[in-house]
Amino acid sequence: MIDLSTLYALIIGTLLVSAALTLWESFGRWRRGPLLIWSTGWATLAIGCGIAAARTQVPGVYGWAASNLLIVSGYLLVLNGVAALDDRRYWRTSALLVMGLALGWMVEGATAHLSFWQYGAGFPILVASALTVFELIRNRALRRLRTRPLAILLPTMHTAIYVGRVFVLPLLAHADGAGVVALASKITMYEGVLYSVAMPMTLVSLVREEAQRHLLAASRTDYLTGLTNRQGLFEAAARLMRGDRAATLLAFDLDHFKAINDAHGHAAGDTVLQSFARVLREAAPDATLARLGGEEFAALLPDTNVAAARMLGEAIAARFAALDDHGADVLVSATVSTGLAQRGPDGDDLDALLRAADRALYVAKSLGRNRLVSASPLFNGAGVAPARAAPRRLVA
């Protein structure tokens, strides 16, 4: 048999450890804000539970009210930490709940503090836990994380406990009296011990998993353009080119890019690269777009035939050639040469398609640039598409 004082001691100890570990976890983490809010919440809960354990030693209802207000504030801090993961806050709602609870203690607690503690005081905890579940469910950034189902389950169980305490326990207490209330208190405290251990660990794991996912995404992303990089392109191709699924590849190489850098500086060259990346996104939003390095780009088009890929490549080249304002301080006109490779005739995997498209690019460059060349057939004339739109001012 475990008495309530022992359960209180366990909860206080685990909450203090959770507060310390969460605070430690916040150092150097990109989710420092939510972690700091949670750490404060666990510490507030520990202080509230400490006062609750000695509430009968304080005259009047002050110990009861103070501990309840602090415990509810701790739950609301946990809620606000979860909401902060999606840049939301519940400070106004939290303030209203705390003020309403304080008013309840002033009105009901003065005359019936024991029954108010057993039933009504748990209602704000129920609301805070339910809102925590709601925030975890609605957060789109967390939807693919493995820890998310557990993070939802724990406050859901906690909410269910307090639904029973607030709405069911009064009915049972009316039938059985003090025995069922004492049992309910032990069940609530025991579940509180489990919650105080599992919930902090789960939230920290959630942040760690989210941080790892962002790091993986950053490792697959080109910093300058925001497109995927070569590694990301190969990983996407492994998913998109399974079985006999049709695919085409467009490889792009900006013409005379070294001359742009020499004439206008690397900052202007960077804006031209970013401008071409924007053209790619606008023209091919459903394609896997990558910057392979330097001025080389690629677009992987699953379920796309050669004719559709050719039309898209020519449209991209024409749109890019028509620009002379790339966001640089000077006007710069630039064009792009394009190589097209088709899965099957030009290879079955991405590596083979890249080699084929690169050979086609070499031909496009040799024919005068600003044109599209298909890898197959390469030299019979059918694979060459001349430039559709000449730039207003060529950069030599």
Protein described:
64% of the residues lie in helices and 8% in strands. Strands 2-3-1-4-5-6 form a 6-stranded mixed β-sheet, with helices on both faces. The protein has 12 helices and 6 strands. Mean pLDDT is 90; it is low at 387-396. With 396 residues, the protein is α+β, with helices and mostly antiparallel strands. The protein starts with a helix and ends in an 11-residue tail after the last strand. It has helices spanning 4-26, 32-53, 62-84, 91-118, 123-138, 148-176, 178-219, 230-240, 257-264, 266-283, 306-321, 350-366; strands at residues 247-254, 288-293, 296-302, 336-342, 372-374, 384-385. The longest helix has 42 residues, at 178-219. Helix 12 links the parallel strand 4 and strand 5.
Provide a concise account of the structure shown.
With 396 residues, the chain is an alpha+beta fold. 64% of the residues lie in helices and 8% in strands. It has twelve helices and six strands.
Number of helices: 12
How big a fraction of the residues is strand? 5-15%
Helix content: 55-70%
Spell the H/E element sequence. HHHHHHHHEHHEEHEHEE
Structural class estimated from helices and strands: alpha+beta
| Uncertain segments | 387-396
Q: Measured on Cα atoms, how large is the radius of gyration?
A: 32 Å
Could you say which overall geometry the principal axes of the C-alpha atoms support?
elongated
Q: Mind summarizing the main beta sheet?
A: 6 strands, mixed
Strand neighbour order, sheet with most strands: 2-3-1-4-5-6
End-to-end gap:
88 Å
Mean pLDDT: 90
- Count of beta strands: 6
